Amino acid sequence: MSGTSTGAGEPSRTLALLWGDASAGPRRKGPGRSVTVDQLVTSALALADEQGLSAVTMRAIAERVGVSAMSVYTYVPGKAELLDLMVDALYLAMPRPAWRSRSWRTRLTKVAEANRDLLLAHPWLTEVAALSRPPLGPGLMAKYEHELAAYDGTGLDDVTTDAALTYLLGFVQAHCRAAHDAARATTDSAMSDADWWAANEPVLARALDPQAYPRAVRVGAAAGEAQGSAWEADRAWRFGLARTLDGLASLIEKD
């Protein structure tokens, strides 16, 4: 799919599609009227999950639902709008249990974990960038409302609360993108980290002179031994999330 930014389509058409407005109905009559926008979105999500975002084309979706590629455009004007519908559908399906803990740190940990689960289940989402005018669909609004509620009682003003949520989700996005890239490197090379290091150890032993790079060799060796690789996703998640929450604590617990 060319273009991987949400909110890049025709705004009025996108919003009408997201909210089921009557104006978003098929723009011309023709065969295949039994197909719905929801079916197209479901097929697009399946394609993205199975083959990656680049596999999502109007032609591929049409083949999945049994209609012509041109008829798909009568429901969704283009790929940009389709991407908005895909992302919003995933947001809408996210679990939103009531916040019961009195600890803001526990609540924000749950927010982070829910977003991590979403991004790990749908790795292509880490490739999607949000523009400054996100498509305000029902999924995004429900997600935003729920996650903002996790900040209730923290004493932050509205603007700071929004910034604090963006900060937290930014960490999750960056971590999951790194985890996705690491997993893809293993898949593409058909070699685990341990196997890669073992295969390249003779060359590395000659190249990485501890006299020239004393800190890099010492610290790198200690980290690699502790983690079993140069980077370990779960360890990086625990460390990064704790530091992110510590940063927010400087605002929330400053008194």
At a glance:
The chain has 255 residues and is an all-alpha fold.
- Per CATH, the superfamily of the largest domain is Tetracycline Repressor, domain 2
The arrangement of helices and strands along the chain is EHHHHHHEHHHHH
Q: From the 3D structure, determine the CATH topology of the largest domain.
A: Tetracycline Repressor, domain 2
What's the CATH first level of the largest domain? Mainly Alpha
Averaged pLDDT, please? 86
Shape designation: flat
Strand order of the largest sheet: 1-2
Structure class:
mainly alpha
As a whole number of angstroms, the C-alpha radius of gyration is 22 Å
Count the beta strands. 2
Any guess at the CATH architecture of the largest domain?
A: Orthogonal Bundle
Ordered list of secondary-structure elements with their pairings:
Layout: E1 5-6, H1 11-18, H2 37-51, H3 58-65, H4 69-72, H5 79-92, H6 104-121, E2 129-130, H7 138-149, H8 158-189, H9 193-207, H10 214-227, H11 233-252
Parallel strand pairs: 1-2
What does this protein look like?
One of its GO terms (biological process) is negative regulation of DNA-templated transcription. Helix 5 packs across helix 7, helix 6 (104-121) runs parallel beside helix 8 and helix 8 (158-189) packs antiparallel against helix 11. The protein has two domains: 11-91, Homeodomain-like (Arc Repressor Mutant, subunit A); 99-253, Tetracycline Repressor, domain 2. The longest helix has 32 residues, at 158-189. Helices cover 63% and strands 2% of the residues. By secondary structure, the chain is mainly α.
